[in-house]
Structures are given as structure tokens and as C-alpha cells.
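Onboarding guide, step 5: your first structure request.
Type a short instruction followed by the sequence, for example:

Predict the 3D structure of this protein.
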Amino acid sequence: MIFRSLAIVAALLSTSAASMAADLIIPTTPQPIMEQAGFSWDGLYAGVQGGGLFNSVTSFGVVGAHIGVNFVVAEPILVGVEGTAEWLFEDLGDLGAFYANARLGALVSNDVLIYALAGTGIEVNAADETIGTYQLGGGVEFAVTDSVSLRGQVVGVGFYDGDDFLNGTKATVGASYHF
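The system replies with C-alpha cells like these:
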């Protein structure tokens, strides 16, 4: 009887041990590693800007909008094209300015872009006269969220029919939404 009791206890213990051992091996599916998407400089963007244009005669307030597209061709080099429409206002009269710009930049970090800008365009005065104009300069742009950036830009502005290479300096700050 003692042997039968010991055999029953041994059988119960081995069954319990086997069921515990089975619990130790739990098949699981590995969880994917999630990374933050972060800011992407590639693609379409649109925004607004404001500032001033200063020359030897007068100064203008500037407000406007821009739309463009960027391509990171090889880290850290970025190329892009951008169109801008601006309203320049001052006491002598208002002007509209429209530019097609090329941008060449370098990504200092994932969140900071420095760039050079060259553009050609027209200014339209209150009498609907158009003047051919160009701009050369550069700026710096900072990503502040995954889709919004802030920028500061300084360009020299000249006229194709003018005697001077540059007739004024335009300084603007702006915000862009990247799609």
C-alpha cells in the first residue's frame, strides 16, 4: 500500500511538473521595432512669408506665399524648385512680385537645412507695368514638427534693365507645411 501511494504521488508530481514545464515554453511573435518617422525634406511644401525689402531710396513691407518641391539627391545634398508670389507695399505705391526659384541646400542635421537660392521673375506696379527682376541669396530652415518648418531668408534683388547688379535687399521669415 505504501508503494501504491508513493506511485500515485510520483505520478501526480510528474504530471504537474510536465504541465509546468510546458508553460515555460510560450510561443510568441516578435513585435516589430517602431521608429519615429521624423521630418522628411523630400516632396511638396507650401507656406507663407513676410518681412521687408530695403534699397537706397525706400523700404517696402513684404507678405507672400510660396510653393515648391524638394529632392534629397544624396545625403546631405538637397535640390528644389519654388514659386513665390509677394505683395510689396509702401507709401509710393504697391507692387506685386512673382518669382521662379531654384534652391541648392545641405542638410546640417535631420532638422536643419541651409540653402542658396537663385530666382527670376517680374514685378508689377500699380499702373500694370512689368519689370524683369531676379534674386540671389540664401537661408536657413528648421523643422519644428514632423510636417512644419520655419525659415529665414535674405536675398539681393536686381532688375534686368538696371545699371546696378543688385538694387535692394529682401529679408523674410516664413513657415511651410510639408505634405
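Each response can be followed by summary notes, for example: The longest strand covers residues 59-74.
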